[in-house]
Every structure is written in C-alpha cells, then in structure tokens.
Write a structure and sequence with these properties.
This protein is an alpha/beta fold. The chain is built from five helices and ten strands; from the N terminus they run αβββαββββββαβαα. Strands 1-5-4-9-3-10 form a six-stranded mixed β-sheet, with helices on both faces. The chain has a two-stranded antiparallel ribbon with strand order 2-6. Strand 4 and strand 5 form a beta hairpin. It binds zinc ion. The site of zinc ion has 3 residues, from loops.
Length: 216
C-alpha cells in the first residue's frame, strides 16, 4: 500500500515538475520575444501621414533600391507643399525633417516621382523600383542632423528587411543621374549635388552599424 502510494505520488510530482518546466520555458520564450520585438520596432520619431498625388497609380514599385535626396528647400513645410502639388509632378516616399519627424507621403509599393532621368545597376526609370527619401535641408550648406540619420535608419531597416534590399542599392540622386548622363551624354539633364558624398557616407555608416548590431 505504502509502496503503491509512493509510486502514485512520484508520478504526480513528475507530472507537476514537467508541467512547471514547460510553462517556465514558454514564459521565458514569450518574454524574450516581446523584449526583442520592442527593442527593434519601438518608434522614436514622430510619424505624420502626408500623402502625395504625384504617383503612378497604374504601377507597383518593385522596391529594389533606395535613393537619398535633400529637399534644398528652406523648411519641411515648403518642401511638402512642392512634393504634394499636382502641378509640380514631383513626389517622394518620405520627407525627414531636421528634428527627425517623418512625413510619409507614399507606401513603399507606390511609384512616386522622385528620381527623374536615372539609371541604377543598368536599369532606367528608377521611380519604378526605388524608394525616395528626402532629407529636409541642403547638404551643401549644412550636414544632416543626427536625428535625420537616426530617423532615416529607423524608417529604412524594416523596408530593407521586408524587400531584401542590398545595401549597395542604397544610393544618392546624384549617383543615378550621373549614371544616366554617362549613358546619354547628349541628352539635356542638369546635374546637381543631391545629397553630398560625405553625408551619404555618414548615413550609410550609421545604417550599417545599426544593422550589424541588430543581427548580433
Ligand atoms: Zn533629388
């Protein structure tokens, strides 16, 4: 009888221990999932929706690359006005103000008119396969702010991960325009710095640093 009882109680204890181990493992996994999710997806900068009509409603963006621009406008407000004016026919996916606030003008799959005459990796018409980021300001006169670099990184990383964009396909407007001018030297196409190579490298260094840290 005692032997039988102890067998039963050992069985019960074994079941309780097993149950406890399973629930603790489950809880630990859940909390680590939650903490990694919150550290990756917490949004630090203000995001404002500001849709632009300057898009091609009949096409879908292939999202193969990203083009970095500066607005060369005195304020984000004046830039947003131009980028949403139907007469101007220029748009972008996001404008990033000097305080890091992001004005989202189009979703990544939308074709927005930001690239003009352009070639990236031999492909013409970059509007149809790239995302446009407009940093408020003029990088010839002042560097990007830390907030702009951080906010731009925060905006881009989920897009890079979703569409598997290679970092080599993140370039400046000047780079894709120069590629076009090289192929068509006789075509009229004005050249300008947009954005400077120095600010481009600063942005890319930060982006690489954050992406490496996230992968560790
Ligand atoms: Zn540009």
């Amino acid at each position: 009888m005692i032997r039988q009882l102890s067998k039963v109680s050992i069985g019960i204890i074994a079941v309780i221990v097993l149950f406890a181990v399973i629930s603790i493992t489950f809880l630990l996994r859940m909390s680590s999932d939650m903490s990694s999710a919150s550290s990756e997806f917490v949004c630090h900068y203000k995001v404002v929706n500001y849709p632009t009509p300057n898009i091609d409603p009949d096409s879908t963006n292939k999202v193969l690359g990203v083009i970095l621009h500066h607005t060369a406008e005195p304020t984000a407000e004046s830039a947003l006005k131009i980028l949403s004016s139907p007469e101007k026919k220029v748009g972008t996916h996001v404008v990033i103000d000097t305080d890091g606030t992001r004005y989202v003008m189009a979703e990544p799959t939308v074709v927005a008119y930001h690239a003009g005459y352009s070639i990236l990796n031999g492909l013409e018409g970059c509007n149809y396969f790239t995302i446009g980021i407009e940093f408020q300001g003029n990088t010839l006169k002042a560097p990007l702010t830390e907030e702009q670099i951080e906010s731009g990184t925060e905006y881009l990383i989920p897009i890079i991960n979703t569409y598997n964009i290679p970092l080599e396909n993140i370039v400046t407007h000047q780079m894709i325009r120069n590629a076009y001018k090289e192929k068509y030297p006789n075509k009229r196409c004005s050249g300008k710095v947009d954005i400077t190579q120095t600010e481009y490298q600063r942005f890319m260094n930060h982006l690489r640093k954050i992406m490496t840290a996230n992968n560790d």
